[in-house]
Design goal:
Layout lengths: L9 H12 L3 H10 L4 H9 L18 H13 L8 H5 L2 H6 L2 H13 L4 E5 L15 E5 L2 E12 L6 E7 L13 E7 H4 L4 E5 L8 E12 L3 E2 L5 H37 L1 E2 L2 E2 L4 H29 L5 H25 L11 H9 L8 H12 L7
Parallel strand pairs: 1-4
Antiparallel strand pairs: 2-3, 3-7, 4-5, 5-8, 6-7, 9-10
Helix pairs in contact: 1-4, 4-9, 9-10, 9-11, 10-11, 11-12, 11-13
The structure holds flavin-adenine dinucleotide (FAD).
Length: about 375
């Protein structure tokens, strides 16, 4: 019954764990120091077909569902690795799959499945817009067979390691649109062609190794043929993909929580202070047990949200709730694990401090906890809206 006891997709999990064993803590520590991209790790995942599991078989992927993708990302994080360098290659293509033309699907999906094309940059957030996406101002003006794009994006991860970027921009200003969420359009930007020809990419150094960037658009020409779906409907297309993203990131958080719980349990059994293992003290073992209970509960909700998504059922609330609970479970486990390790928790070679820093992100991105609470309060409980 309990998915915590009998994990789904055991063969996939074992294979991913074997792959990750070739990328030990020392590999991630060296990259973290330099803020360098884990190119070899991403190549191994690509060659193993793991980043193409959500692409239908007709386009060269494995045609599996979100549960299988969740199992892959959970195992990556459980092993001490980090899927942030490439997880978007799994799901960003969803906007083409669901809303692209037959020609666009044929042109891009097989190459994304093989890894020949990397579509793992997703350009939504702007410095002046924050969580309120309807306030974006990056504008695509129509000029013949092109759009001409001007504006700025912030926190666009993997832009330097992506051949294509899904870009959300305005084609009608917020003031002129019927509704604030109307008038936004999705364009597929060819990054190699764009950089230096109207697009400037500036890396942003952060407390984690996440390859995130700031983008400046100055009259970048994007062919109208690269528009996904109808002009002005982009916000709706982007929302579709956000549920998948939240569920998959929740799965990564579950993997992180398992990493911390396993490391803390092992250390608490081995480390002797006052002549006995520290784990014999309930002050040490209870937080580990609590972290396990919290992770197990969140994991069940991740499974539930993934099943709803796979069944094509509405799952916005479940995707949000599982991301919130999983990110809180992983953060509690991170703090517990650091405390269990005492001073050694701060030593780079133990990987705890790195994973601790990495685990903190998910209460902020891709959506912050307050905004999820607001969704539950107003959409589920019908409480008055605050904005
Ligand atoms: C490392 C990293 C990678 C990222 N990668 C990408 C990416 O690839 N593509 C992309 O488009 N974006 C990306 N983001 C952006 C990310 O999605 C946003 O940071 C996140 O959605 C929060 O938006 P914000 O930073 O603008 O916070 P803000 O919207 O400015 O909010 C700041 C704080 O105020 C709170 N708050 C705001 N309004 C309210 C309210 N009405 N009620 C209560 N609380 C409120 C929020 O919860 C938050 O805690 C990334 C961010 C980071 C840090």
């Amino acid at each position: 019954m309990s998915k915590g006891a009998i994990p789904s997709f055991p063969e996939i999990r074992q294979a991913v764990a074997r792959l990750c064993a070739d990328f030990p803590g020392s590999y991630w520590q060296a990259l973290d120091r330099e803020r360098a991209y884990p190119a070899e790790f991403v190549r191994a995942l690509t060659e193993g077909g793991y980043l193409a599991v959500l692409i239908p078989e007709a386009y060269g992927g494995s045609g599996l569902g979100l549960s299988a993708a969740s199992a892959i990302l959970e195992e990556i994080h459980r092993s001490g690795s980090n899927g942030g360098a490439c997880h978007a290659q799994m799901y960003t293509m969803g906007v083409i799959l669901r809303h692209g033309s037959p020609e666009q699907k044929q042109a891009y999906l097989p190459k994304i499945a093989s890894g020949e094309l990397r579509l793992q940059a997703f350009g939504v957030t702007e410095p002046g817009a924050g969580t309120d996406t309807t306030r974006i101002t990056t504008f695509a003006r129509r000029d013949g067979d092109d759009y001409v794009v001007s504006g700025q994006k912030l926190w666009i991860s993997r832009a330097e390691h992506s051949d294509l970027m899904v870009l959300l921009c305005r084609t009608t200003s917020r003031d002129e649109a019927k509704k604030p969420s109307d008038g936004m359009t999705v364009l597929l930007v060819d990054m190699q062609q764009a950089v230096g020809n109207g697009l400037t990419v500036r890396p942003v150094r952060t407390m984690i190794n996440h390859a995130t960037t700031e983008l400046f658009f100055e009259d970048l020409r994007v062919p109208v043929a690269n528009r996904i779906g109808a002009e002005g409907e982009g916000f709706r297309y982007i929302l579709d993909g956000m549920n998948a993203e939240r569920i998959l990131i929740a799965a990564e958080c579950i993997g992180d929580a398992k990493f911390f719980i396993e490391r803390a349990s092992a250390y608490a059994k081995a480390r002797e202070v006052f002549g006995r293992p520290i784990g014999a003290n309930q002050g040490v073992q209870f937080p580990i047990a609590r972290a396990y209970a919290q992770m197990t509960a969140a994991s069940l909700l991740v499974d539930h949200a993934a099943s709803l998504f796979e069944a094509g059922e509405p799952c916005g609330t479940e995707a949000n709730m599982c991301k919130m609970l999983a990110s809180e479970a992983s953060w509690f486990a991170a703090d517990m694990c650091l405390q269990t390790h005492g001073g050694f928790g701060f030593a780079e070679e133990y990987d705890i401090e790195r994973k601790f820093r990495e685990a903190r992100l998910y209460q902020v991105a891709p959506i912050s906890t307050n905004l999820i609470l607001s969704h539950i309060a107003t959409h589920v409980l019908d409480l008055p809206k605050s904005f």
